[in-house]
Design a protein that fits this description.
The complex is a heterodimer of chains A (about 280) and B (about 325).
Chain A (H helix, E strand, L loop, with lengths): L2 H25 L5 H4 L2 H9 L17 E4 L5 H11 L39 H15 L5 E6 L6 H12 L5 E7 L8 H4 L5 H7 L3 E6 L3 H12 L6 E6 L22 H15 L2
Parallel strand pairs in A: 1-2, 2-3, 3-5, 4-5
Helix pairs in contact in A: 1-3, 1-4, 1-10, 3-4, 5-6
Chain B lengths: L7 E2 L1 H15 L3 E5 L4 H11 L4 E3 L4 H13 L3 E7 H7 L1 H10 L5 E5 L17 H6 L5 E3 L4 H13 L4 E5 L4 E2 L14 E4 L4 E5 L3 H14 L4 E5 L2 E3 L3 H11 L1 E9 L4 H12 L3 E7 L9 H7 L4 H23 L1
Parallel strand pairs in B: 2-3, 2-4, 4-5, 5-7, 6-7, 10-11, 10-13, 13-14
Antiparallel strand pairs in B: 1-8, 6-12, 9-11
The complex binds thiamine diphosphate and magnesium ion.
The site of magnesium ion has 7 residues of chain A, from loops.
Chain lengths: ~280, ~325
């Protein structure tokens, strides 16, 4: 990736991270860890000319789709959608509040730019498979992206969907696994070991790339290859750091589902600011 | 009456034909199956539209999510599975992916009630109306005869939202004429009367008509209502009829817990003073047996419905007399 683009995306990512921290602090509850671990990838998808989408026409028929199967990480989705212009940024202040368009988990009927509602883990990839099948039947060349958690891979339905996507040769489907190594109760390897994860996807018939999910060269490379997959679905297993960008949250299990206090917010914003200038 | 020839339809056949006819007219219609539909309603569809038939094997949760995804893509999916696997295994997928999103996904619960009695209670589900009915946004259709099954397919596709269609295995006796038009949310008065209202659904409509005719022979005039939409219930007709007769009997091949009877009770309790008797299956797992055996065992034959209604009416008379003393 060009240095210029890389710096631009990093800057966007820093802004998204700050938005995540601010909105969670205001909401008083929510999930920072898994939102921050996906921020670099979302920066690339939404601001790196990857997704074919138009914020002025959120229902455009031929748009690419994104399913946030790990719906609890919605602060990153909301931050990206607001930054992109789907709705005014002031809405971010209403996260999880009564009457807000930004609920605790994504709702397609409330938030422009959300392609399908999610929240119960394990269900989103199946919806993405259905969308990919429908797009193919419609003769649309769009791509369907599905973002799933590594803990979420405990769910049997993920593997049902994985089996079905390969069975139907869905090369218009791209899954991204946020392999941050943590879930609620601890390390993924201790709670329920899903390793060898990449090999599992391979065995299910997917094209697999394992990358550093914070390295823009690797992100771009893997996504572009996935877009060109032929005859089978592609998955990017992104090794990430949960809480990435906020040093005191990084790799700390407790920051899965806890909002920063006012002081923690200030400290977090400082961390992110430093990261931005690197 | 006796000279009238009775016509029977096989619901699965009717649905299979209706789906093909519908799919010919509307290329958005797709069929989603879970390894048990080719012998049911999916065979002819598959033959005519193999590209629009998606088989997902024994993965009901996955298939339900995929049906939602297909609907997001502008398709009109019909997904079929045995009631336990269509309604229970993927309950959360129905609730979140289909109902909360209000997508045009049409779920066919095959073999409802005692359809497959010999398979036992893992397959004999008498709780589906209560379970599915508890979810917002979904419409439940429970047809009584061939014309209703056919219409249900077309109307479900037309309705831009989720539908749960209960499909019975028994041959269904024709109640409605050929030009019948089903209106979702509207019940049909299939027999007029003014002393008693019988509200029935699915297989129990035919049995209730027979019971009403036996009552008639005894000089009791019973009205029979075919409640083919269980959600939303036709509140207006329930109130209109019950305010006339003051006595209501519900009949269903379903648990008396959270079925048709409970839905009618909810209406009567708040808006219509009338006495109610619920005829159905008591809160229990069904015993194993052939269809006719079970219908008899649980007191759902026309004769047993007739007996229960007579008891109900006599008890009411006794109560009225004792009140007067
Ligand atoms: C079916 C289901 N079970 C449990 C939960 C509660 N839950 C929310 S997040 C989470 C852990 C998710 O871990 P992972 O998929 O690794 O997400 P990440 O680490 O990216 O936040 C759990 C168990 C849920 N949302 N859905
Ligand atoms: Mg994780």
């Amino acid at each position: 990736m060009e240095e210029k683009k890389k710096n631009r995306l990093k800057k966007v990512a820093a802004g998204l991270r700050q938005d995540i921290i601010r909105m969670l602090c205001l909401a008083g509850s929510g999930h920072p860890g898994g939102a921050l671990s996906m921020t670099d990838i979302f920066s690339y998808l939404y601001f790196g000319d990857v997704l074919n989408i138009d914020p002025n026409k959120p229902d455009k028929k031929d748009r690419d789709r994104l399913v946030l199967s790990k719906g609890h990480a919605c602060p990153i989705l909301y931050a990206a959608l607001a930054e992109k212009g789907y709705f005014d940024k002031s809405h971010l202040k209403t996260l999880r509040k009564f009457g807000s368009i930004l609920q605790g988990h994504p709702d397609m009927n409330k938030t422009p730019g959300v392609d399908i509602s999610t929240g119960s883990l394990g269900q989103g990839l199946s919806c993405a498979v259905g969308m990919a099948l429908g797009a193919r039947l419609n003769g649309q060349s769009l791509k369907v992206f599905a973002v799933i958690g590594d803990g979420e891979c405990d769910e049997g339905q993920i593997w049902e969907a994985a089996m079905a996507a390969a069975h139907y040769n869905l090369d218009n489907l791209i899954a991204i696994v946020d392999k941050n190594g943590l879930q609620i109760d601890g390390f993924t390897k201790d709670v329920m070991d899903t390793e060898p994860l990449a090999e599992k996807w391979k065995a299910f018939g997917w094209e697999v790339a394992t990358i550093d999910g914070h390295d823009y060269d690797q992100i771009e490379d893997s996504i572009q290859k996935a877009k060109n997959a032929s005859g089978r679905p592609a998955v990017v297993v992104a090794e990430t750091v949960k809480g990435k960008g906020v040093s005191f949250m990084e790799g700390v299990c407790e920051w899965h589902g806890q909002a920063p206090s006012e002081e923690e917010k200030e400290e977090a914003l400082k961390c992110i600011g430093e990261f931005k200038t690197d | 009456m006796d000279s009238e020839k009775k016509i029977y339809d096989n619901p699965r056949k009717v649905i299979a034909e209706a789906l093909v006819d519908l799919a010919k007219r509307d290329d958005r219609v797709v069929y989603v199956s879970c390894d048990s539909s080719l012998g049911a309603s999916g065979g002819p569809f598959n033959k005519n539209f193999p590209q629009r038939h998606f088989e997902f094997g024994i993965q009901e949760q996955n298939a339900m999510g995929e049906a939602a995804g297909l609907a997001v893509s502008g398709k009109i999916p019909f997904i079929a599975a045995y009631v336990p696997f269509a309604a229970f295994r993927c309950f959360e997928q129905i609730r979140d992916d289909v109902c909360k999103t209000r997508l045009n996904v049409n779920i066919m619960g095959n073999n409802c009630g005692f359809s497959v009695g010999p398979l036992g209670p893992t397959h004999v589900i008498i709780e589906d109306v209560g379970v599915i009915g508890s979810v917002p946004n979904i419409t439940i259709i429970s047809p009584a005869d061939g014309p209703q099954y056919r219409e249900a397919i077309f109307k479900a596709a037309e309705l831009d939202g989720p539908v749960y269609l209960r499909v019975h295995r028994q041959e269904a006796r024709r109640i409605h004429g050929d030009g019948y038009s089903l209106k979702i949310g509207r019940a049909d008065r299939v027999l007029e009367g003014d002393e008693l209202t019988i509200i029935a659904t699915s297989t129990m409509v035919a049995n209730s008509i027979d019971a009403a005719l036996m009552l008639k022979a005894k000089g009791i005039s019973a009205e029979v209502i075919n409640m083919s939409t269980l959600k939303p219930l036709d509140r207006d007709l329930v109130l209109e009829s019950s305010s006339k007769t003051k006595k209501v009997v519900t009949v269903e091949e379903h648990s008396v817990v959270n079925g048709l009877g409970s839905a009618v009770a909810n209406i009567l309790a708040t808006s219509g003073p009338a006495l109610l008797k619920k005829i159905g299956i008591e809160d229990n797992f069904a015993v194993v047996g052939e269809y006719d055996e079970l219908i008899d065992y649980y007191g759902l034959t026309a004769e047993k419905i007739f007996d229960k209604i007579q008891d109900f009416l006599h008890r009411e008379e006794d109560d009225e007399n004792s009140n007067r003393l």
